[in-house]
Amino acid sequence: MSSMSDAWIRNAVAEAVGAFILVTSTLLVVGAGATPRALTYGLVVVGLVVGLGHVSGGHFNPAITLAMLLDRKIDVLGAAAYWIAQFAGAALGAVTVMLTTDREVVEAGTPRIADAMDVGGAIVLEAIFTFAIVLVVFCSVVDERAPLSAYPFGIGMTVAVGAFATDALTGGALNPAKGFGPAVVSGEWDAVAAWLAGPIIGAALAWAFYRFVIAPPGNTPAFGR
Amino acid sequence: MSSMSDAWIRNAVAEAVGAFILVTSTLLVVGAGATPRALTYGLVVVGLVVGLGHVSGGHFNPAITLAMLLDRKIDVLGAAAYWIAQFAGAALGAVTVMLTTDREVVEAGTPRIADAMDVGGAIVLEAIFTFAIVLVVFCSVVDERAPLSAYPFGIGMTVAVGAFATDALTGGALNPAKGFGPAVVSGEWDAVAAWLAGPIIGAALAWAFYRFVIAPPGNTPAFGR
Amino acid sequence: MSSMSDAWIRNAVAEAVGAFILVTSTLLVVGAGATPRALTYGLVVVGLVVGLGHVSGGHFNPAITLAMLLDRKIDVLGAAAYWIAQFAGAALGAVTVMLTTDREVVEAGTPRIADAMDVGGAIVLEAIFTFAIVLVVFCSVVDERAPLSAYPFGIGMTVAVGAFATDALTGGALNPAKGFGPAVVSGEWDAVAAWLAGPIIGAALAWAFYRFVIAPPGNTPAFGR
Amino acid sequence: MSSMSDAWIRNAVAEAVGAFILVTSTLLVVGAGATPRALTYGLVVVGLVVGLGHVSGGHFNPAITLAMLLDRKIDVLGAAAYWIAQFAGAALGAVTVMLTTDREVVEAGTPRIADAMDVGGAIVLEAIFTFAIVLVVFCSVVDERAPLSAYPFGIGMTVAVGAFATDALTGGALNPAKGFGPAVVSGEWDAVAAWLAGPIIGAALAWAFYRFVIAPPGNTPAFGR
Questions:
Q1: At residue A143, does pLDDT exceed 70?
Q2: Would you call C19 exposed, middle or buried from its count of C-beta atoms within 10 A (0-12, 13-18, 19+)?
Q3: Which residues of A101-134 are buried (b: 16+ CB within 10 A; e: fewer)?
Q4: Which pLDDT belongs to residue B153?
Q5: B2 pLDDT band (50/70/90 cuts)?
Q6: Which residues in chain A touch residue B49, judged by CB atoms under 8 angstroms apart?
Q7: Chains meeting A at 3+ CB pairs closer than 8 A?
Q8: Interface-testing mutation among D29, D92, D159, with chain A (most A C-beta atoms within 10 A)
Q9: Does any domain span residue C110?
């Protein structure tokens, strides 16, 4: 999407729909326990990237869009459209959950930093696992040496891992839209630093690591297929 | 299947067998808890679509068949044969579970709307997650830009997500046959609006969204493989 | 393997190793609960079929070998070698678990029919889910229209589904070797009819269904990739 | 990597990053229960191998690097660089978990041999499941007959199986770096024989089994795709 085209509206709509499904499903499952929460988050990314990855890129996450902007895979206007779509879709998801079930479900699903954690630690953990997700995105989608057709699973499984690792500590957002949508409805913004700064830092570092360490030519794999 | 051929009988039999296995497995696991229920539902769809997707299309769900009819991938007679096969296979699955275990197992596995939910909300939730499933079906099977060989997982993981999200609220049918089969045996039809109207609405919306928003040419992906 | 060759010994060894890993892992996890049990069984099949499917065919299950014999994909001598290897590998797995942990672990992992079930019902359930597994094997490995590279997951996920569905009722063998190995060590043969007759019946029916209903030409898919 | 090149530094960095993410995620999830622990371990390997398998080979495990050295896929200097990177990344992961959460989390996640197990049994179990992992690595990555794009899942699912099987008995390292990193921080080295000798023995046996039994030509599959 080096230049804006008719396609950008539908791509942005696809991003909004994806963020809507992502937030709706992860909020509705919130009371079921840590394993359903982490699996739902990872598996919804698998499903959405299989379905919409080849349409909009399958970000559904403003941090991934930021990394794509840094890599000039999308321009500033396109990124802005994606961000608006992602935040709007996420907020609509939270509203839908509130209207069909209860506002308490959205409150329970708004990311929250564990009492034993400080904000700095929460930012670090959100950054580490968003770094992992965005690194897998670049290595498996942008990098053409990656195994064909494996990227939706690689990305989704890394999301599940990040969710398992951070669920009890930061609320496991790993995506500013996943924090924003529920926060708009619940009014709980205590963890905003973690779910906003963490993913932004992690995504930027992952892009830099991919572009300056992994991607340069001359990198002969020890083995590969 | 633009014209009816010898193949339609065996395709319908494949749909009946798939619906039979889907209902039998999801009923037998019903007492094991929410995680086994949702995983079984998602994984049986992965297995059946890997096995029978290239035979009958791998619907096992009247709502998916409806969307394929709207898209003229199947004609009215073919769709009717599929519907009969899906409902019959599902009912036979419920009867088999009753005969080998107990009628109470089928009762426990008949979709039921949570006390805190109203019927409208249940229809909305069933519609949202059937929309997600059918959207992934269209985007990954009909859309030729999708990653090769990924569709069974994309579809099955979206089914698991929908099941995780709606299990405690609507009973997580997302498929009229999955509600019908158990209801025939248990006689509990209280949630029929949710598992019948919800999936039908969701599937029709997903088809329209795919056909009029996603599919038109000119849609340049931000990235893709 | 239409004629016996040097390869048959190493193929049989691969089958023994696979059955050994399958039985060892599923026995060691037995105390962890129903979800770990079913996931371990399904995932070990994914791993082993990815690794050894292109070597020996990746059966690790005498019922699958029987179906391949009926389909003349393997001859009687080859099938006999596979059966000996599968039963021997399974028994060695159970012995290894007994020696490294305790005989009680093997007892707990020997298939057992639930008190509420009669033997006939147990045979029916073992037959239904072995039917599903073997049908997916034929449709995804023998049938060349299947999605490429998807067969290990399709087969493994169907095994997991069968294990989730039958774990509490029949002990979820779905494979005579998985019943035999633990029974040799524990001396508990009460469920032998279920784990021997059930899988044999299910595999033979799956072969017949594939060969006479699914495979004949003229079967136009409603859609496919 | 038959000769050392500019690429070896970035490959080693990729190995360090992978080991860091592997240890960080599996330590943070340690309090969540056996199912999250085993799934996180398996899924992080799926994600990392999808992302970095074509870069560094995706070992993140000194035992896999040893097997690749035995197979002359990597030379001694390269292997040494990989080992340093893997152990350093793992230790950094444990330090990060200590700094962001608590030293007790690292202690709880340091592999520990169950009271009922002796050291010999623990070594055997670690060897068996590392054997399974390394066998799947060789059969699905080195062996060109394997199904395309399936190796990250085959490897990761085998890791999950090994983790499910050994979690309660040996702590489920299956990787010397996964034992070393936490032990450096917690100071608990009681299980060092299990997580060091077990994986080394298992990996060497898997290499020998692959190279001398599975790989030689003349091995006709019974079926395959």
A1: yes
A2: buried
A3: beeebbbebbbbbbeebebebbbbbbbbbbbbbb
A4: 97
A5: very low
A6: none
A7: B, D
A8: D29
A9: yes
User: Are C43 and C156 spatial neighbours (Cβ–Cβ below 8 Å)?
Assistant: yes
What subunits make at least 3 CB pairs under 8 angstroms with D?
A, C
Cross-chain Cβ contact B50/C213 below 8 Å: no
pLDDT bin (cut points 50, 70, 90) of residue C3 is very low
Nearest CA in chain B to A24: B165
Q: What is the mean pLDDT of residues A198-225?
A: 83
Which CATH number characterizes residue C17's domain? 1.20.1080.10
D2 lies in a domain? no
Residue (of B201, B196, B67) closest to B128 by Cα position: B201
Residue C109 lies in domain: 7-214
Which residues in chain B are contacts of C165 at CB distance < 8 A?
24-25, 28-29, 40
Q: Which of the residues A118, A119, A164, A213 would you substitute to probe the D interface, choosing the one with the greatest number of D C-beta atoms within 10 Å? A: A164
Residues in C touching B25 (Cβ below 8 Å):
129, 132, 161-162, 164-165
Could you report the predicted ipTM of this complex, rounded to two decimals?
0.95
Report the C-alpha gap between B176 and C103 in whole angstroms. Answer: 47
Q: How confident is the model at residue C217 (pLDDT cuts 50, 70, 90)?
A: confident
C-beta separation of C41 from C61 below 8 A: no
Residue D16, φ and ψ in degrees, nearest 5: -65, -45
CA distance, residue C107 to nearest chain B CA (Å) = 22
Q: Judge: B225–A47 Cβ closer than 8 Å, yes or no.
A: no
Instruction: Judge: D51–A158 Cβ closer than 8 Å, yes or no.
Output: yes
- Name chain D contacts of A125, Cβ cutoff 8 Å: 28, 100
* Averaged pLDDT, B140-165: 95
The Cα–Cα gap between A193 and A199 comes to 10
Is residue A222 situated within a structural domain? no
Which chains lie within 8 Å of chain B at 3 or more CB pairs, if any? A, C
Rg of chain A on CA atoms, in Å: 17
- Report yes or no on B2 lying in a domain: no
**Interface-testing mutation among C13, C37, C100, with chain D (most D C-beta atoms within 10 A):** C100
Three state DSSP letters for C5-64: CCHHHHHHHHHHHHHHHHHHHHHHCHHHCHHHHHHHHHHHHHHHHHHHHHHHCCCCCHHH
C-chain residues near D140 (CB < 8 A): 50-51
Which of C50, C68, C148 faces D223 most closely, judged by CB atoms?
A: C68
Q: Which of C137, C154, C202 is nearest to C174 (CA)?
A: C202
b or e along B33-70 (b: 16 or more beta carbons within 10 Å of the residue's beta carbon)? bbbbbbbbbbbbbbbbbbbbbbbbbbbbbbbbbbbbbb
Query: How many structural domains comprise chain B?
Result: 1
On average, the pLDDT of chain A sits at 94
Burial class (CB in 10 A: 0-12, 13-18, 19+), C94: buried
Please list, in sequence order, all residues whose beta carbon lies within 8 angstroms of the beta carbon of residue B11, skipping any fewer than 6 positions away.
Answer: B1, B55, B56, B57, B78, B81, B82, C219, C220, C221, C222
Per the CB < 8 A criterion, the answer to whether A49 and B220 are in contact is no
Q: What are phi and psi of D118, to 5 degrees?
A: -95, 165
Give pLDDT, residue B3: 41
pLDDT 10s digits, D163-188: 999 999 999 999 999 999 999 999 99
Nearest-Cα distance to chain D for A150, in Å, is 6
* Contacts with B17 from chain C: Cβ below 8 Å: 135, 209
**Contact (CB, 8 A) for A118 and A193:** no
Give the rounded distance of the alpha carbon of B126 from its chain centre. 11
Residue C84 CB coordination number (10 Å): 14
Pair of tokens at residue D73: 């896929």
Best residue in B13, B24, B55 to probe C by mutation, most C CBs within 10 Å?
B55
